[in-house]
Amino acid sequence: MLRYLAHAAGVLVLVVALAAPAGAADTVKLGDLPAISNAGIYIAIEKGYFQERGVAVDIERFASAGKMTAPLATGQLDVSVGSPSAGLFNSIAGGMDFKIVADKGQVRPGYNFIPLIVRKDLVDSGKVKTLKDLKGLKIANGAKGINLDYFLAKMLEHVGLGYDAVDVVYMSYPDGVKALASRAVDAAFAPEPWGAQAEKEKIGTRLFVTEDVPALATFQVAAIMYSGKFIKERPKVARAFMQAYVQGLKLYNSKGGLKDAEIAGILAKHLKLPVETIQATFPVYLDPSGKLRVQDLAAFQDWFHRMGWVKETVAMDRVVDQSFLE
User: What residues of the chain score a pLDDT lower than 50?
Assistant: First the structure.
């Protein structure tokens, strides 16, 4: 009888264990700015890589990376995506607590995912053929003090023009494409898929690309950022998030990027665009290990400082922490 009761008790413990719910996933609040360079994140979500590591990603969409800075610094966001900007460096210099932790997009030869889009009628008429022809034109850019200001300056510098040779106006990337259509601007600087979308609508041409300019042919563009609170209070979750993200990067590279039907389908779902538009974009280079080009971040800060947009420069070890990639 005792042996029977012991056996029954063991079975009961097993049944209870099997019936018990699995441990709750750790929620990571992610600030998102839709772009093809988010491929590693979107792939990791759709392929279940975060879930496999006990991470639930709670996405909040933002209109610009700048709007994520305050909630990231206070820990309302754990992770954000975006690009280095004057505001980012000023925030860190002012004591805000967050770090750039991984690559989220680079330009390299053949990977020109931030083209300068020129109005189609100006290209068709021959008014704009070279970068020198941009002189005096109105160019839309996403926001003042972002990395695309730097890229535009380097493109102009390449042909002997100063940054003040053009009239830069600031608006969201979708609004920049609309401004091309209404002829309110002559050109727009925007990351993909907006260039592909402008060509699809026959309102713009991706006329100038980064590899045309030696100083920009290989350069860091976008990054993943962690809040200081996330780093300090939940380092295991921060590492699990990064492992899932890097797994997404590796799949992106192993399958050939956006030309792969599955990868393009994932991007189309998250960006709410046709697969054909995704596959027509100029591709983004995503480092398979997630490593950043830190020297390029320093170059951004130095230029922003020369422009007077960054008042106090900070050492890169206050800006970057790549330890979660190790």
Answer: 1-22
